[in-house]
Each structure stands twice: as structure tokens, then as C-alpha cells.
């Protein structure tokens, strides 16, 4: 069993981005994203209707961090503290040393390699600090941007489950990508 202990929140700085803990004030910027049908098109979660739901989501995210069950970062530009996206290991299977990665980005910033930049450092944290053995991405079969993104980070497509997920009256396919630790040879 992997012993997950995040300790002090791991803020991460990259060339263009700052990854930090979500705070209640981020609801203002996250609400428009969680209610945007374009952003949420391939994320099987109901669109949020009230900002209060986003406050609750941020609370849940932070509770999961404090209880070492999952970790999600707010993504901001280095010179502007406003949230433009999120990325994190929402679900961690300690017994399998495995985590599922999830992410979303404001469409105004799509196609600039922003999520690629964020994902590289989050994966490095997952493998080097948390000592994960593998990371999974569960992607809608039509989400080309997300599949290209994970492939560029080295993920391999391992499964395509047909109509295995029921959401809002439809049975959706799930494409499972996985990345094994680059440190596996020394574990
Ligand atoms: C998936 C997402 C995070 C990608 O973020 P991004 O910062 O635009 O990604 P990047 O700029 O790093 O580009 C990743 C790749 O996808 C490609 N891409 C970007 N938008 C695309 C689109 N709409 N259609 C097809 N490919 C696209 C890029 O060209 C790039 O490919 P390349 O490496 O071959 O050039 C973003 O599209 C998003 O937030 N989507 C909505 C939420 C979502 O679907 N989350 C994932 C759930 S699994």
C-alpha cells in the first residue's frame, strides 16, 4: 500500500504557469468553466447552475487534499492569480500505487500548450514525490484534444470500453490511457 502524505501544499512554478491550492475566491473564475457546455462537453458531470455548487466543489477538493485522498491544483499564469484551469489526481488507488488524472482549461487558453506544460510537472510530482507506479486518464472517445495531450505526455491507449458509463440518458464509451512510472527500473 502506498502511503500518501501530501504535507504542505506543493505549489509548482513553470515557465508560464503557477500551480497552487484552490481557494474559495476561485469560484468566481471556475463557475463560468463548470457551466460552459463547450468546456464540459466531454466531462460526464452535470453543468453547474449556481456558484454555490462550485464553492462546495472547492471544499470537497480541499477536504480530499487534507485527508490525502486526492490533490487538485488551480492553474494560473505566473503574472496573474486568476484561475484559468485545474489539474489533479482526483482519485488515488493507494493499493495499486495508481492515480487518475483530470484537467480542464479555459477555452481562451486552448491550443497554446498550457495543459501540456502543467501536466508534465504534475506527472513529475506524481511519480517522483508521491511514488505512483501508474497514472490513468479516462477520456471520452471524441475528445481529440485530450487524447493528443496525453499521448504527447507518453500515455498509451490501453482500453476502449463500449457504452460502459451511463450519464444523462446515454451510455458513453470510455477510452483508458495509462502511463507507467519512468522510475520503474529502480523500484
Ligand atoms: C483537453 C484540454 C485540457 C487541452 O488543453 P490545451 O492546453 O489546449 O492542450 P495543448 O495546447 O497542450 O494541446 C494538446 C494537443 O491537443 C491539440 N488540440 C488542442 N485543441 C484541440 C482540438 N479542439 N481538437 C483537436 N486537437 C486539439 C493540440 O494541437 C495539441 O496537439 P499537438 O501536441 O499534436 O500539437 C482542453 O482542450 C480542455 O480543457 N478541454 C475541456 C475539458 C476537457 O475535456 N478535459 C479533459 C477531460 S478527460
What are the segments in which pLDDT stays under 50 over at least 5 consecutive residues? none
- Please name the fourth-level CATH homologous superfamily: Gcn5-related N-acetyltransferase (GNAT)
**How would you state the average pLDDT, rounded?**
96
* Ligand set: coenzyme A
Helical content (DSSP H or I, runs of 4+): 25-40%
Strand content: 25-35%
First-to-last CA distance: 14 Å
Reading off the top of the CATH hierarchy, the class is best stated as: Alpha Beta
Total number of strands = 8
Assembly status: single chain
Explain the layout of strands and helices.
Elements: E1 12-13, E2 17-21, H1 27-34, H2 51-66, E3 71-77, E4 80-93, E5 98-105, H3 114-129, E6 134-139, H4 144-152, E7 156-167, E8 170-180
Helix pairs in contact: 1-2
Bound molecules: coenzyme A.
Coenzyme A binds at residues 39, 42-43, 103-105, 110-116, 139, 143-146, 148-149, 152.
Overview in brief:
By secondary structure, the chain is of the alpha+beta class.
How is this structure best described in words?
The model has no long low-confidence stretch (mean pLDDT 96). Helix 1 (27-34) crosses helix 2 (51-66). Helices cover 26% and strands 35% of the residues. The radius of gyration is 16 Å and the shape is globular. It has helices spanning 27-34, 51-66, 114-129, 144-152; strands at residues 12-13, 17-21, 71-77, 80-93, 98-105, 134-139, 156-167, 170-180. By secondary structure, it is of the alpha+beta class. Strands 1-2-3-4-5-6-8-7 form an 8-stranded mixed β-sheet, with helices on both faces. The protein binds coenzyme A (COA).
